[in-house]
Records
---
Amino acid sequence: MRFEELPTPCYVIDEALLERNLKILNGVMERTGCRILLAQKAFSMYAMYPMIGKYLSGTAASGLYEAKLGYEEMGKENHVYSPAYRKDEIDEILSICDHIIFNSFSQLERFKDNIRKAGKNIGLRINPECSTQEGNGMYDPCVAGSRFGVTLKNFRPDLLEGVSGLHFHTLCEQNADALEKTLDAVEEKFGQWLPQFEWINFGGGHHITKEGYDLGLLEKCIKRMQQKYGLLVYLEPGEAVALNAGFLVTTVLETMENEIDIAILDTSATCHMPDVLEVPYRPPLFGSGEAGEKTHTYRLGGPTCLTGDIIGDYSFDQPLESGDRLVFGDMAIYSMVKNNTFNGMALPSIAIRDKHGECRILHKFGYQDFKDRLS
Ligand SMILES: *Cc1c(COP(=O)(O)O)cnc(C)c1O
C-alpha cells in the first residue's frame, strides 16, 4: 500500500533511510577494522535484522530476552551486558552469547565456574568516572553513585584471570570529542592493564549517523586503541543505527479550544513515544513549525486521561481538522521498544516502507495485546 493508506497510529520504518545509516557504520568498520554491534535496547525491530546483519557484526543485549532475539533473528556475534545476572538465566545466556560482560568483580566471581565451563569471552565493564554530559544524570553512567561499571578504586587486577576485554559505556547522543576525552580517562586510570586484553568495547551513545558527527575523530580514537594496545575495538550504538529512519503516522481525532487551540491525536506521548516525556524532547513533525511560527498553533495531545500526555505545541499553515494525518519524524529508536498499553491504548502498527516507496504492515496489535499483559 501507499504511505497515505497506512492505518494509524503506525510506526513506519524506511528501509532506504535505515540502510543509509548502516552504510555509514559499515564504512567505519571497513576503514578501521573495528566491529559494530546493534544495541537492541534502542531498536529491536527484528524484521530488519537480516538487513542490519549484512552491514554490522552482530547484536548487543542487556539481558536474556534481548540476547535471545539477537541470537534468533540475526545470528551473528552476540554480546550481553547486565548490571546483575540472574542465577536461573546465566546458563541459557552462556549458551547463546559469545561475549558476556560483567558489571563487577563480585558478579564475575559468582558466575566464574559457569563461564569457564562454557569457554566464552568474558568482559568487565569499567567506569572511567569521566562525565561528558550535562543534565540530571538520567543518561550519565558516570554520575556520582552510578551502578554502572567498576571504578578504579574497586578494580581488582588480581581477579582478572580469564577476562579478555574491557567495556565502557558513558556517552549519550554525543560526538567523537566526548569519546576522545573518555579514552583519555580510560587510559589514565586503566591504561597499565590494557595491553593484557584482546578487545575493548566503547559502548553506545555515539551519534555517528547524525549530521555533523566527526567520523575522522572517531576513527582516530579507534586506531589509537588498536595501535597502542593491539586491541580489537567494538562499538555498540543503538540510536545511531536507526536514527531518523522511521516515522509515527497519526490522525487528528478532534480539535477544541481552551484559551489555546488543541488537537487530540490517535497517538499518545506517554504510550507510543514515552521518551518525549521522559527525556524530554520535541519530536520533529513534518510540515509544522514552532509555536507561533505559522498561522495556526495547536497543542497536540493524546487520547489518554493523563493531563501531561502532550506531545508539544506546533504550528501549521492550515487549521487542523478531524481526519488530518500528521507524521512525526525520528520515531524508529526508543519508540516501539518502550511503548505500552496504559489506559487501554492500542499499540501502533509496525510497517515498513521499502526502497520503492511501497508500504507493508508487518504487525497489527489489538485488544488481545492489552489483555494479555494483565490478568
Ligand atoms: C544504551 C546502551 C547502548 C546504546 O546506546 P545508544 O545511546 O542507543 O547508542 C549500548 N551499550 C550499553 C551498555 C547501553 O546501556
---
Amino acid sequence: MDDSLNFDTLAVRSGTLRSEFGEHSEALFLTSSFVFASAAEAADRFTSSGDYYTYSRFTNPTVTMFQERLAALEGGEACIATASGMAAIMSVVMSALKAGDHLVSSRSLFGSTLGMFSQIFSKFGINTTFVDPTNPDAWKKAVRPETKMFFLETPSNPLTEIADIEAIGAIAHSVNALFVVDNCFCSPALQQPLKLGADIVMHSATKFLDGQGRVLGGALVGSKQFITEKLFPFVRSAGPTLSAFNAWVLLKGMETLSVRIERQSANALEIARWLESDPAVKRVFYPGLQSHPQYEIAKRQQKAGGAIVSFELNGDTPEQMRANAWRVIDSTKICSITGNLGDTRTTITHPATTTHARITPEARADAGITEGLVRLAVGLESATDIRDDIARGLTP
Ligand SMILES: *Cc1c(COP(=O)(O)O)cnc(C)c1O
C-alpha cells in the first residue's frame, strides 16, 4: 500500500493481505506450518530467502499483516513482531549487542525493563549506565568506548518525563550507538520517533495498539537491513514470536488507535487540570499541563499529552502518603485497580507497591516514585464520571 497516505487511512487499510477467498476483513491464519506441493518445493522454500511461509515461528500471514501495518504507522521500512513488549526488548539487545558491549539508558523505565538491564543482561556481560532522560549532557557523559546502544522511554512511566528524542539521537549517532525508543505511551498516533532520529522503535502492543486490554504483544520497527539481517535470525531461532491470534486482535485494535488515543488524551487533560486545582493533591504529572517541566518539548514532539496522568497526594510521612494514595484507589467504583494501561477502561495503580515494587528503594527514590504517587491511565468513559470517581477518596 502507498505509504504516503495519511495515518488514519494506513491504520485501517495498510498491510492487508487477501487470500484466494477474497475475504474483506483480515483472515486469522491459525496454522503452525504450511504445506508444499512437492519435496523439491519444500527444499526450495526452506533455503530461499523469499517471502514464503514455512513455519509460524518464522512467519505467518496474520503476523505479517500486523508487522506491515505497524511499520507503515511508524514510518519505518520493516517491523518484526514479538510475543510481548519485554520479548521485543530481549530480542533487540540479544540481536544487536554482545558480551563487553555497554548500554546507556534512561533511568526512568518500565519496571521489568529496568530489571532486564540491571539484573539479566549484566549476567551476560552487557552493562548499563542509567541517566536522567531529560538531561542530554548526562547521556553524553555516560558514553564509553564500548557503548553500542542508547535506550529511551518517553514519556516515562509513571512520571511522564519527556526526553528530547532529537537531541539524544544526535548524541547516539555521534558515537555510532543504536538508538532504541520505547514508544509505548504515545503510540505512533501521537509521536513518531523514527522521524526524530530513532533507529529502532520498540512497542508493547499490549497497551495502546490493542487498546482494549485483551492480548500481549510487542514489536520492533526500523530499517529493512537491521530487521532482516539482525532481528529476524534471532527471533526465528529463539522463538519469542507473536501468535497469529494475538496479531489478528492487534490488527483490529490499530484501526481505532488514533480515535481512541486522541479522545483519551482529551479526557486525561481535563482530569489533570482538575487534579491540579485540588488542594489534596501535591503535584500532577501530565505533559499537556503548562506546569510540566518539559511542556515545550512535549508540544513539539507529541500531538497530544497522552492518556497517562500521575499525581502525588499530600502527607507528612511516607506512611501517611501511602494511606492517602490507597484511600483514593480503594474509594473508586469505576476505575479498575490493575497494572495495565492503554485500555478503554480507566485503570488506577499505586506504582510504589505494584509496578515498581520489585526495584530497590534507592532506585525507586531515584526515579521519583514516592508512596503518595497514583498513576491513572485514562480510558474512554465520561471524564466527568472519572473525576467524580477519584474525588470520592481525595479527602478523608
Ligand atoms: C508494558 C510496558 C512494557 C512491557 O510490555 P509487555 O507487553 O508487558 O511485555 C515495556 N515498556 C513500557 C513503557 C510498558 O508500559
